[in-house]
Amino acid sequence: MYDYVIIGAGIIGTMIARELSRYYVKAIVLEKENDVANVQTLANSAIIHSGHNPTPGTLRAKLNVLGNGLYNDLERELDIPLLRCGAFVVAHNEAEEKQLDELCETAKANGMLDFVILDYSEAVKTEPNLSKTVTKVLSLPTTKVTYPWEVAFACMENAIKNGVKFRKNALVTKISYLKDRYIVEVNENENIETINVINAAGVDSDDIAALIEQEKPFTIKGRKGEYFVLDRRVKDFLNHVLYPLPTASGKGVLLTPQYHGNILVGPNSQYVEDKHKTDVSFDGLDYVREHANSLADNIPYNKIIRSFAGIRASSDYDDFYIKESARYKGLYHLGGIDSPGLSAAPAIAKYLVEELIDAPNKYEKNDNFNPYRHKNPEFHTLTMEKRMEMLKHNPTYGNIVCKCELITEKEIVDAINGPLGSDTIKGIKKRTRAGAGLCQGGYCEEKIMKLIAREKHLSPLEISYDSLESKLFVSETKVRK
Ligand SMILES: Cc1cc2nc3c(=O)[nH]c(=O)nc-3n(C[C@H](O)[C@H](O)[C@H](O)COP(=O)(O)OP(=O)(O)OC[C@H]3O[C@@H](n4cnc5c(N)ncnc54)[C@H](O)[C@@H]3O)c2cc1C
Predict the structure, then answer these.
(1) Above pLDDT 70, what percent of the chain?
(2) Is the dihedral of CA 434, 439, 441, 444 positive or negative?
(3) Of 81, 127, 181, 190, whose Cβ has the fewest other Cβ atoms within 10 Å?
(4) Using CA atoms, how far apart are residues 314 and 321, in angstroms rounded to an integer?
Protein backbone atom coordinates (compact mmCIF):
# COMPACT_ATOMS: atom_id res chain seq x y z
CA MET A 1 0.00 0.00 0.00
CA TYR A 2 1.33 3.43 -0.94
CA ASP A 3 0.68 6.73 0.80
CA TYR A 4 0.74 8.56 -2.57
CA VAL A 5 0.31 7.63 -6.20
CA ILE A 6 1.40 10.53 -8.42
CA ILE A 7 0.01 10.32 -11.96
CA GLY A 8 2.35 11.91 -14.52
CA ALA A 9 6.11 12.42 -14.67
CA GLY A 10 6.27 15.86 -16.24
CA ILE A 11 7.86 18.76 -14.41
CA ILE A 12 4.90 18.95 -12.00
CA GLY A 13 4.78 15.25 -11.04
CA THR A 14 8.56 14.98 -10.65
CA MET A 15 8.81 18.15 -8.53
CA ILE A 16 5.98 16.89 -6.29
CA ALA A 17 7.71 13.51 -5.97
CA ARG A 18 10.90 15.21 -4.76
CA GLU A 19 9.00 17.50 -2.40
CA LEU A 20 7.13 14.53 -0.86
CA SER A 21 10.38 12.62 -0.39
CA ARG A 22 11.35 15.14 2.31
CA TYR A 23 8.88 13.20 4.53
CA TYR A 24 8.49 9.58 5.58
CA VAL A 25 5.85 8.65 3.00
CA LYS A 26 5.69 5.78 0.52
CA ALA A 27 5.15 7.25 -2.93
CA ILE A 28 5.19 6.08 -6.55
CA VAL A 29 5.09 8.04 -9.81
CA LEU A 30 3.17 6.39 -12.67
CA GLU A 31 3.95 7.62 -16.19
CA LYS A 32 2.23 6.33 -19.32
CA GLU A 33 5.13 7.27 -21.62
CA ASN A 34 8.42 5.40 -22.01
CA ASP A 35 10.31 8.25 -20.29
CA VAL A 36 10.06 11.17 -17.91
CA ALA A 37 9.24 14.60 -19.45
CA ASN A 38 7.81 13.43 -22.76
CA VAL A 39 4.76 15.68 -23.22
CA GLN A 40 4.34 19.38 -22.24
CA THR A 41 7.62 19.38 -20.36
CA LEU A 42 9.31 18.20 -23.58
CA ALA A 43 8.09 20.91 -25.94
CA ASN A 44 8.06 24.46 -24.57
CA SER A 45 10.13 27.65 -24.59
CA ALA A 46 12.15 26.66 -21.46
CA ILE A 47 11.78 30.13 -19.96
CA ILE A 48 11.65 30.74 -16.22
CA HIS A 49 9.43 33.79 -16.53
CA SER A 50 9.88 36.55 -13.99
CA GLY A 51 6.12 36.91 -13.36
CA HIS A 52 5.53 40.18 -15.20
CA ASN A 53 2.22 39.32 -16.82
CA PRO A 54 -0.07 36.90 -14.92
CA THR A 55 -3.11 38.60 -13.41
CA PRO A 56 -2.31 39.87 -9.89
CA GLY A 57 -3.98 37.93 -7.09
CA THR A 58 -4.11 34.63 -9.01
CA LEU A 59 -2.30 31.47 -7.97
CA ARG A 60 -0.61 31.66 -11.36
CA ALA A 61 0.97 35.02 -10.52
CA LYS A 62 1.96 34.12 -6.95
CA LEU A 63 3.51 30.74 -7.83
CA ASN A 64 5.29 32.11 -10.91
CA VAL A 65 7.18 34.74 -8.92
CA LEU A 66 7.98 32.30 -6.10
CA GLY A 67 9.02 29.57 -8.54
CA ASN A 68 11.39 31.91 -10.36
CA GLY A 69 13.26 32.47 -7.08
CA LEU A 70 13.25 28.76 -6.15
CA TYR A 71 15.10 27.84 -9.36
CA ASN A 72 18.23 29.41 -7.82
CA ASP A 73 18.06 26.80 -5.00
CA LEU A 74 17.43 24.02 -7.50
CA GLU A 75 20.51 25.02 -9.48
CA ARG A 76 22.64 24.66 -6.33
CA GLU A 77 21.05 21.44 -5.14
CA LEU A 78 20.34 19.56 -8.35
CA ASP A 79 23.03 20.88 -10.69
CA ILE A 80 20.44 21.99 -13.28
CA PRO A 81 21.27 24.33 -16.18
CA LEU A 82 20.22 27.98 -15.81
CA LEU A 83 20.99 30.70 -18.32
CA ARG A 84 20.60 34.06 -16.60
CA CYS A 85 19.89 35.98 -19.78
CA GLY A 86 17.13 38.37 -18.66
CA ALA A 87 14.36 39.49 -21.00
CA PHE A 88 13.08 42.54 -22.88
CA VAL A 89 9.38 43.15 -23.56
CA VAL A 90 9.34 45.44 -26.59
CA ALA A 91 7.15 48.42 -27.55
CA HIS A 92 7.04 50.02 -31.01
CA ASN A 93 4.98 53.20 -30.52
CA GLU A 94 3.35 55.43 -27.94
CA ALA A 95 0.31 53.22 -27.49
CA GLU A 96 2.52 50.19 -26.82
CA GLU A 97 4.75 52.22 -24.49
CA LYS A 98 1.64 52.92 -22.43
CA GLN A 99 1.04 49.18 -22.24
CA LEU A 100 4.63 48.74 -21.01
CA ASP A 101 3.80 51.12 -18.15
CA GLU A 102 0.72 49.02 -17.34
CA LEU A 103 2.88 45.89 -17.38
CA CYS A 104 5.18 47.55 -14.82
CA GLU A 105 2.14 47.97 -12.56
CA THR A 106 1.30 44.28 -12.99
CA ALA A 107 4.90 43.31 -12.21
CA LYS A 108 4.85 45.47 -9.08
CA ALA A 109 1.49 44.04 -7.97
CA ASN A 110 2.89 40.53 -8.43
CA GLY A 111 5.71 41.32 -6.02
CA MET A 112 8.51 41.72 -8.55
CA LEU A 113 11.24 44.11 -7.44
CA ASP A 114 13.61 44.04 -10.34
CA PHE A 115 12.43 45.62 -13.64
CA VAL A 116 13.13 48.84 -15.53
CA ILE A 117 12.06 50.59 -18.74
CA LEU A 118 14.89 51.35 -21.17
CA ASP A 119 15.01 53.49 -24.32
CA TYR A 120 15.91 51.79 -27.59
CA SER A 121 19.36 53.41 -27.52
CA GLU A 122 20.18 51.81 -24.16
CA ALA A 123 18.61 48.43 -24.95
CA VAL A 124 20.38 48.03 -28.29
CA LYS A 125 23.77 48.26 -26.56
CA THR A 126 23.18 44.82 -25.03
CA GLU A 127 20.90 43.47 -27.77
CA PRO A 128 22.49 44.59 -31.07
CA ASN A 129 19.94 42.89 -33.35
CA LEU A 130 16.91 44.41 -31.62
CA SER A 131 14.48 45.56 -34.31
CA LYS A 132 14.99 49.20 -35.32
CA THR A 133 11.22 49.64 -35.07
CA VAL A 134 11.40 49.20 -31.27
CA THR A 135 11.10 52.43 -29.25
CA LYS A 136 11.29 51.19 -25.62
CA VAL A 137 11.68 47.92 -23.72
CA LEU A 138 10.73 46.64 -20.28
CA SER A 139 13.87 44.94 -19.00
CA LEU A 140 13.28 41.88 -16.74
CA PRO A 141 16.66 40.77 -15.37
CA THR A 142 15.29 37.83 -13.34
CA THR A 143 14.04 35.97 -16.44
CA LYS A 144 16.10 32.83 -16.95
CA VAL A 145 16.19 29.90 -19.34
CA THR A 146 16.62 26.28 -18.29
CA TYR A 147 16.64 22.85 -19.93
CA PRO A 148 13.26 21.45 -18.80
CA TRP A 149 13.92 17.73 -19.43
CA GLU A 150 17.07 17.94 -17.37
CA VAL A 151 15.18 19.57 -14.50
CA ALA A 152 12.55 16.81 -14.57
CA PHE A 153 15.26 14.10 -14.70
CA ALA A 154 17.09 15.77 -11.82
CA CYS A 155 13.94 15.89 -9.66
CA MET A 156 12.98 12.30 -10.46
CA GLU A 157 16.52 10.99 -9.86
CA ASN A 158 16.69 12.86 -6.56
CA ALA A 159 13.23 11.64 -5.52
CA ILE A 160 14.23 8.04 -6.35
CA LYS A 161 17.40 8.44 -4.30
CA ASN A 162 15.21 9.61 -1.42
CA GLY A 163 12.88 6.60 -1.64
CA VAL A 164 10.20 7.35 -4.27
CA LYS A 165 9.43 4.62 -6.82
CA PHE A 166 9.04 5.36 -10.54
CA ARG A 167 7.31 3.33 -13.25
CA LYS A 168 7.23 4.22 -16.92
CA ASN A 169 4.84 2.66 -19.48
CA ALA A 170 2.26 2.69 -16.67
CA LEU A 171 -1.00 4.08 -18.06
CA VAL A 172 -3.59 4.79 -15.35
CA THR A 173 -6.84 3.34 -16.69
CA LYS A 174 -9.22 3.40 -13.70
CA ILE A 175 -9.46 4.87 -10.20
CA SER A 176 -11.88 3.55 -7.56
CA TYR A 177 -12.44 4.71 -4.00
CA LEU A 178 -12.97 2.20 -1.19
CA LYS A 179 -13.80 4.22 1.93
CA ASP A 180 -10.24 4.71 3.19
CA ARG A 181 -8.10 4.05 0.11
CA TYR A 182 -7.94 4.20 -3.67
CA ILE A 183 -7.38 1.41 -6.15
CA VAL A 184 -5.47 2.71 -9.15
CA GLU A 185 -5.63 0.43 -12.16
CA VAL A 186 -2.58 0.41 -14.44
CA ASN A 187 -2.61 -0.77 -18.07
CA GLU A 188 -6.03 -2.37 -17.45
CA ASN A 189 -4.39 -5.34 -15.76
CA GLU A 190 -2.85 -4.36 -12.43
CA ASN A 191 -4.12 -2.69 -9.26
CA ILE A 192 -2.13 -0.42 -6.97
CA GLU A 193 -3.51 0.52 -3.54
CA THR A 194 -2.88 3.95 -2.13
CA ILE A 195 -4.24 6.32 0.51
CA ASN A 196 -3.84 9.45 -1.64
CA VAL A 197 -3.77 10.20 -5.38
CA ILE A 198 -2.16 13.21 -7.05
CA ASN A 199 -3.38 13.94 -10.55
CA ALA A 200 -0.50 15.69 -12.39
CA ALA A 201 -1.41 14.37 -15.83
CA GLY A 202 -1.03 17.61 -17.84
CA VAL A 203 -3.29 17.67 -20.92
CA ASP A 204 -4.95 14.48 -19.65
CA SER A 205 -5.64 15.78 -16.13
CA ASP A 206 -9.34 16.35 -16.89
CA ASP A 207 -9.66 12.78 -18.20
CA ILE A 208 -7.95 11.43 -15.09
CA ALA A 209 -10.39 13.46 -12.96
CA ALA A 210 -13.27 12.01 -14.99
CA LEU A 211 -12.14 8.46 -14.06
CA ILE A 212 -13.51 9.07 -10.56
CA GLU A 213 -15.31 12.41 -10.23
CA GLN A 214 -19.01 12.51 -11.13
CA GLU A 215 -18.51 15.98 -12.61
CA LYS A 216 -15.26 17.09 -14.24
CA PRO A 217 -13.89 19.94 -12.06
CA PHE A 218 -12.30 21.52 -15.18
CA THR A 219 -11.92 20.80 -18.89
CA ILE A 220 -8.60 20.96 -20.70
CA LYS A 221 -8.56 22.85 -23.99
CA GLY A 222 -5.34 22.00 -25.86
CA ARG A 223 -3.53 25.10 -27.15
CA LYS A 224 -0.79 24.41 -29.64
CA GLY A 225 2.48 26.34 -29.96
CA GLU A 226 4.80 25.86 -32.94
CA TYR A 227 8.51 26.73 -33.18
CA PHE A 228 11.58 26.92 -35.37
CA VAL A 229 14.89 25.87 -33.81
CA LEU A 230 18.04 27.68 -34.99
CA ASP A 231 21.43 25.96 -34.85
CA ARG A 232 23.58 26.74 -31.82
CA ARG A 233 26.22 28.29 -34.05
CA VAL A 234 24.05 31.46 -34.20
CA LYS A 235 24.28 31.79 -30.40
CA ASP A 236 25.68 35.35 -30.56
CA PHE A 237 22.66 36.65 -32.48
CA LEU A 238 20.58 36.99 -29.30
CA ASN A 239 21.34 37.80 -25.66
CA HIS A 240 17.91 38.18 -24.01
CA VAL A 241 14.49 36.59 -24.30
CA LEU A 242 12.55 39.00 -26.53
CA TYR A 243 8.81 39.21 -25.83
CA PRO A 244 6.17 41.24 -27.67
CA LEU A 245 3.46 42.78 -25.48
CA PRO A 246 1.18 40.07 -24.09
CA THR A 247 -2.34 39.69 -25.47
CA ALA A 248 -5.43 37.76 -24.38
CA SER A 249 -4.03 34.67 -26.10
CA GLY A 250 -0.73 34.70 -24.18
CA LYS A 251 2.81 35.99 -24.28
CA GLY A 252 3.00 35.93 -28.07
CA VAL A 253 5.75 34.84 -30.49
CA LEU A 254 9.14 35.14 -28.80
CA LEU A 255 12.81 34.88 -29.57
CA THR A 256 14.44 32.78 -26.87
CA PRO A 257 18.11 31.91 -26.41
CA GLN A 258 18.52 28.33 -25.20
CA TYR A 259 20.99 27.08 -22.61
CA HIS A 260 23.09 25.19 -25.18
CA GLY A 261 23.20 28.04 -27.70
CA ASN A 262 20.23 27.31 -29.98
CA ILE A 263 17.59 29.99 -30.49
CA LEU A 264 13.85 29.23 -30.45
CA VAL A 265 11.53 31.25 -32.67
CA GLY A 266 7.91 30.85 -31.54
CA PRO A 267 5.39 29.84 -30.32
CA ASN A 268 2.02 30.73 -31.82
CA SER A 269 -1.15 29.95 -29.88
CA GLN A 270 -3.88 27.91 -31.51
CA TYR A 271 -6.70 26.00 -29.78
CA VAL A 272 -6.86 22.45 -31.18
CA GLU A 273 -9.38 19.62 -31.17
CA ASP A 274 -6.84 16.87 -30.60
CA LYS A 275 -4.76 17.65 -27.53
CA HIS A 276 -2.22 14.93 -28.34
CA LYS A 277 -1.42 15.84 -31.95
CA THR A 278 1.84 17.80 -32.07
CA ASP A 279 2.28 18.23 -35.82
CA VAL A 280 3.50 21.53 -37.26
CA SER A 281 1.78 23.37 -40.10
CA PHE A 282 2.88 25.79 -42.83
CA ASP A 283 0.28 28.30 -41.60
CA GLY A 284 1.49 28.08 -38.02
CA LEU A 285 5.16 28.50 -38.94
CA ASP A 286 4.37 31.38 -41.34
CA TYR A 287 2.57 33.13 -38.49
CA VAL A 288 5.58 32.60 -36.21
CA ARG A 289 7.98 34.01 -38.78
CA GLU A 290 5.87 37.05 -39.54
CA HIS A 291 5.47 37.99 -35.85
CA ALA A 292 9.08 37.30 -34.82
CA ASN A 293 10.26 39.86 -37.36
CA SER A 294 8.95 42.70 -35.18
CA LEU A 295 11.38 41.70 -32.40
CA ALA A 296 14.75 41.55 -34.18
CA ASP A 297 16.26 42.40 -37.56
CA ASN A 298 17.76 39.81 -39.91
CA ILE A 299 16.80 36.68 -37.97
CA PRO A 300 19.08 33.95 -39.42
CA TYR A 301 16.34 31.70 -40.82
CA ASN A 302 18.98 30.02 -42.98
CA LYS A 303 20.16 28.31 -39.78
CA ILE A 304 16.87 26.52 -39.01
CA ILE A 305 17.63 22.91 -38.03
CA ARG A 306 14.11 21.73 -37.13
CA SER A 307 10.58 22.71 -36.13
CA PHE A 308 8.37 21.28 -33.39
CA ALA A 309 5.11 21.89 -31.53
CA GLY A 310 3.87 21.49 -27.98
CA ILE A 311 0.31 21.53 -26.62
CA ARG A 312 -0.46 23.69 -23.60
CA ALA A 313 -2.84 22.19 -21.02
CA SER A 314 -5.06 25.28 -20.92
CA SER A 315 -8.38 24.93 -19.11
CA ASP A 316 -11.79 26.56 -18.77
CA TYR A 317 -10.85 27.54 -15.18
CA ASP A 318 -9.33 30.99 -15.13
CA ASP A 319 -6.22 30.08 -13.09
CA PHE A 320 -4.07 27.05 -12.21
CA TYR A 321 -6.54 24.53 -10.74
CA ILE A 322 -4.73 23.08 -7.69
CA LYS A 323 -7.25 21.66 -5.24
CA GLU A 324 -8.25 18.65 -3.22
CA SER A 325 -11.36 16.99 -4.64
CA ALA A 326 -14.56 18.35 -3.13
CA ARG A 327 -15.88 14.79 -2.84
CA TYR A 328 -12.87 12.50 -2.33
CA LYS A 329 -10.46 13.05 0.55
CA GLY A 330 -6.81 12.68 -0.41
CA LEU A 331 -7.41 13.12 -4.15
CA TYR A 332 -5.60 16.20 -5.49
CA HIS A 333 -6.03 17.65 -8.99
CA LEU A 334 -3.48 19.86 -10.74
CA GLY A 335 -5.26 21.05 -13.86
CA GLY A 336 -4.77 23.80 -16.39
CA ILE A 337 -1.04 24.00 -15.67
CA ASP A 338 -0.10 25.72 -18.90
CA SER A 339 2.45 28.54 -19.11
CA PRO A 340 4.04 29.59 -16.75
CA GLY A 341 3.82 26.07 -15.31
CA LEU A 342 7.50 25.33 -15.80
CA SER A 343 8.48 28.54 -13.99
CA ALA A 344 5.99 27.96 -11.19
CA ALA A 345 6.67 24.19 -10.82
CA PRO A 346 8.89 24.31 -7.70
CA ALA A 347 6.39 26.62 -5.99
CA ILE A 348 3.42 24.50 -7.15
CA ALA A 349 5.02 21.42 -5.55
CA LYS A 350 5.64 23.29 -2.27
CA TYR A 351 2.13 24.78 -2.28
CA LEU A 352 0.57 21.34 -2.72
CA VAL A 353 2.78 19.47 -0.25
CA GLU A 354 3.14 22.12 2.45
CA GLU A 355 -0.18 23.97 2.27
CA LEU A 356 -2.84 21.66 0.83
CA ILE A 357 -1.50 18.33 2.10
CA ASP A 358 0.00 19.97 5.21
CA ALA A 359 2.87 17.47 5.16
CA PRO A 360 5.03 19.32 7.74
CA ASN A 361 2.33 18.73 10.38
CA LYS A 362 1.08 15.41 9.07
CA TYR A 363 4.28 13.41 8.47
CA GLU A 364 7.63 12.89 10.11
CA LYS A 365 10.55 14.56 8.31
CA ASN A 366 12.75 12.15 6.34
CA ASP A 367 16.07 12.45 8.24
CA ASN A 368 17.86 10.77 5.37
CA PHE A 369 16.60 13.25 2.75
CA ASN A 370 19.53 14.30 0.58
CA PRO A 371 18.68 17.34 -1.58
CA TYR A 372 21.75 17.01 -3.79
CA ARG A 373 22.20 15.46 -7.21
CA HIS A 374 25.27 15.87 -9.38
CA LYS A 375 25.37 15.71 -13.12
CA ASN A 376 28.40 14.48 -15.03
CA PRO A 377 30.11 17.41 -16.75
CA GLU A 378 29.66 17.89 -20.50
CA PHE A 379 33.03 16.61 -21.73
CA HIS A 380 33.45 19.03 -24.65
CA THR A 381 33.00 22.05 -22.36
CA LEU A 382 35.98 21.09 -20.11
CA THR A 383 39.52 22.43 -20.43
CA MET A 384 41.93 20.46 -22.60
CA GLU A 385 43.93 19.54 -19.47
CA LYS A 386 40.86 18.12 -17.74
CA ARG A 387 39.78 16.26 -20.87
CA MET A 388 43.23 14.66 -21.25
CA GLU A 389 43.14 13.55 -17.62
CA MET A 390 39.67 11.98 -18.04
CA LEU A 391 40.74 10.32 -21.30
CA LYS A 392 43.61 8.62 -19.51
CA HIS A 393 41.16 7.01 -17.09
CA ASN A 394 38.58 6.16 -19.74
CA PRO A 395 39.62 6.09 -23.42
CA THR A 396 35.96 5.95 -24.58
CA TYR A 397 35.87 9.72 -23.99
CA GLY A 398 38.05 9.76 -27.13
CA ASN A 399 35.28 8.31 -29.33
CA ILE A 400 33.03 11.18 -30.44
CA VAL A 401 29.68 9.64 -31.39
CA CYS A 402 27.66 12.83 -32.09
CA LYS A 403 29.87 15.07 -34.18
CA CYS A 404 27.47 18.04 -34.21
CA GLU A 405 27.14 18.34 -30.42
CA LEU A 406 30.50 16.65 -29.63
CA ILE A 407 29.07 13.91 -27.42
CA THR A 408 31.35 11.00 -26.57
CA GLU A 409 30.78 7.26 -26.22
CA LYS A 410 31.39 7.46 -22.44
CA GLU A 411 28.67 10.10 -22.01
CA ILE A 412 26.19 8.01 -23.99
CA VAL A 413 27.00 4.84 -22.05
CA ASP A 414 26.56 6.79 -18.78
CA ALA A 415 23.13 7.98 -20.01
CA ILE A 416 22.11 4.41 -20.91
CA ASN A 417 23.14 3.05 -17.51
CA GLY A 418 22.50 6.13 -15.32
CA PRO A 419 20.17 6.28 -12.30
CA LEU A 420 17.29 7.19 -14.61
CA GLY A 421 18.84 5.45 -17.61
CA SER A 422 17.24 5.04 -21.03
CA ASP A 423 17.34 2.47 -23.80
CA THR A 424 15.71 4.58 -26.53
CA ILE A 425 17.22 6.90 -29.14
CA LYS A 426 15.07 9.83 -27.96
CA GLY A 427 15.88 9.11 -24.31
CA ILE A 428 19.62 9.34 -25.03
CA LYS A 429 19.08 12.53 -27.05
CA LYS A 430 17.20 14.08 -24.10
CA ARG A 431 19.94 13.09 -21.65
CA THR A 432 23.05 13.93 -23.70
CA ARG A 433 21.99 16.08 -26.70
CA ALA A 434 23.38 13.42 -29.06
CA GLY A 435 21.24 13.94 -32.19
CA ALA A 436 20.14 17.47 -31.25
CA GLY A 437 22.54 19.23 -33.63
CA LEU A 438 22.78 20.25 -37.24
CA CYS A 439 22.30 16.77 -38.74
CA GLN A 440 19.50 15.89 -36.27
CA GLY A 441 20.85 12.41 -35.63
CA GLY A 442 21.47 11.46 -39.28
CA TYR A 443 25.06 10.58 -38.44
CA CYS A 444 24.88 9.28 -34.85
CA GLU A 445 21.55 7.51 -34.35
CA GLU A 446 22.80 4.23 -35.82
CA LYS A 447 25.88 4.39 -33.54
CA ILE A 448 23.71 5.11 -30.51
CA MET A 449 21.49 2.18 -31.40
CA LYS A 450 24.55 -0.10 -31.41
CA LEU A 451 25.70 1.23 -28.04
CA ILE A 452 22.24 0.60 -26.53
CA ALA A 453 22.25 -2.93 -27.99
CA ARG A 454 25.72 -3.59 -26.56
CA GLU A 455 25.03 -2.16 -23.09
CA LYS A 456 21.56 -3.67 -22.64
CA HIS A 457 22.28 -6.97 -24.42
CA LEU A 458 19.44 -6.31 -26.86
CA SER A 459 19.00 -7.17 -30.51
CA PRO A 460 18.68 -4.06 -32.72
CA LEU A 461 15.17 -5.36 -33.48
CA GLU A 462 14.23 -4.71 -29.85
CA ILE A 463 15.34 -1.06 -29.79
CA SER A 464 12.79 1.75 -30.00
CA TYR A 465 13.06 5.35 -31.09
CA ASP A 466 10.75 6.43 -28.23
CA SER A 467 7.59 4.52 -27.23
CA LEU A 468 7.65 0.72 -27.04
CA GLU A 469 5.70 0.69 -30.34
CA SER A 470 8.29 2.76 -32.22
CA LYS A 471 10.77 -0.01 -32.99
CA LEU A 472 13.59 1.10 -35.29
CA PHE A 473 13.54 -2.05 -37.42
CA VAL A 474 10.78 -4.30 -38.66
CA SER A 475 12.92 -7.33 -39.53
CA GLU A 476 16.35 -8.33 -40.80
CA THR A 477 16.79 -8.19 -44.56
CA LYS A 478 19.72 -10.66 -44.67
CA VAL A 479 20.43 -13.41 -42.19
CA ARG A 480 24.07 -14.34 -41.66
CA LYS A 481 24.52 -18.14 -41.58
C1 LIG B 1 4.29 25.57 -26.47
C2 LIG B 1 4.50 25.70 -25.00
C3 LIG B 1 5.36 26.66 -24.49
C4 LIG B 1 5.54 26.80 -23.12
N5 LIG B 1 6.49 27.66 -22.65
C6 LIG B 1 6.69 27.76 -21.30
C7 LIG B 1 7.73 28.57 -20.80
O8 LIG B 1 8.56 29.10 -21.52
N9 LIG B 1 7.80 28.73 -19.46
C10 LIG B 1 6.93 28.13 -18.59
O11 LIG B 1 7.01 28.37 -17.40
N12 LIG B 1 5.98 27.28 -19.05
C13 LIG B 1 5.87 27.06 -20.38
N14 LIG B 1 4.94 26.19 -20.86
C15 LIG B 1 4.12 25.44 -19.92
C16 LIG B 1 4.88 24.26 -19.32
O17 LIG B 1 5.56 23.54 -20.31
C18 LIG B 1 3.90 23.37 -18.60
O19 LIG B 1 3.15 24.15 -17.69
C20 LIG B 1 4.55 22.24 -17.83
O21 LIG B 1 5.44 21.52 -18.64
C22 LIG B 1 3.45 21.33 -17.31
O23 LIG B 1 4.01 20.18 -16.76
P24 LIG B 1 3.10 18.96 -16.36
O25 LIG B 1 3.95 18.05 -15.57
O26 LIG B 1 1.85 19.47 -15.74
O27 LIG B 1 2.63 18.33 -17.74
P28 LIG B 1 3.35 17.26 -18.66
O29 LIG B 1 4.78 17.55 -18.86
O30 LIG B 1 2.53 17.12 -19.88
O31 LIG B 1 3.28 15.93 -17.79
C32 LIG B 1 2.08 15.23 -17.58
C33 LIG B 1 2.41 13.75 -17.66
O34 LIG B 1 1.28 12.98 -17.33
C35 LIG B 1 1.35 11.79 -18.09
N36 LIG B 1 0.03 11.15 -18.14
C37 LIG B 1 -1.08 11.63 -18.75
N38 LIG B 1 -2.09 10.74 -18.61
C39 LIG B 1 -1.60 9.68 -17.91
C40 LIG B 1 -2.15 8.45 -17.48
N41 LIG B 1 -3.43 8.10 -17.75
N42 LIG B 1 -1.35 7.58 -16.80
C43 LIG B 1 -0.05 7.90 -16.53
N44 LIG B 1 0.51 9.07 -16.94
C45 LIG B 1 -0.25 9.95 -17.61
C46 LIG B 1 1.80 12.29 -19.46
O47 LIG B 1 2.33 11.25 -20.25
C48 LIG B 1 2.82 13.35 -19.08
O49 LIG B 1 4.13 12.85 -19.07
C50 LIG B 1 4.79 25.98 -22.23
C51 LIG B 1 3.95 24.99 -22.74
C52 LIG B 1 3.85 24.81 -24.12
C53 LIG B 1 3.03 23.68 -24.64
Answers:
(1) 99
(2) negative
(3) 190
(4) 10
CATH of 381-462, one of 1.20.1070, 1.10.10, 3.40.50, 1.10.287: 1.10.10
370's CB contacts (< 8 A; 6+ apart) are 158, 161, 162
- pLDDT tens figures, 397-456: 999 999 999 999 999 999 999 999 999 999 999 999 999 999 999 999 999 999 999 999
List, for residues 288-323, the tens digit of each pLDDT value. 999 999 999 999 999 999 999 999 999 999 999 999
What's the 39 CA to ligand 1 centre distance in angstroms? Answer: 6
Question: Does 267 sit behind a cis peptide bond, omega within 30 degrees of 0 on the bond before it?
Answer: yes
Q: Using CA atoms, how far apart are residues 202 and 311, in angstroms rounded to an integer?
A: 10
The angle subtended at Cα 464 by Cα 458 and Cα 467, nearest 5°, is 135
Domain boundaries, the chain: 381-462
Q: Return the DSSP state at 475.
A: -
Residue of 383, 481, 404 whose CA lies nearest to 447: 404
| Binding-site residues, ligand 1, Cβ < 6 A | 7-13, 30-33, 38-41, 43-47, 49, 171-172, 200-204, 208, 225, 267, 310-312, 337-343
| Pocket probe mutation, ligand 1, options 39, 156, 242, 351, max atoms within 8 Å of Cβ | 39
Q: What does the pLDDT read at residue 481? A: 56
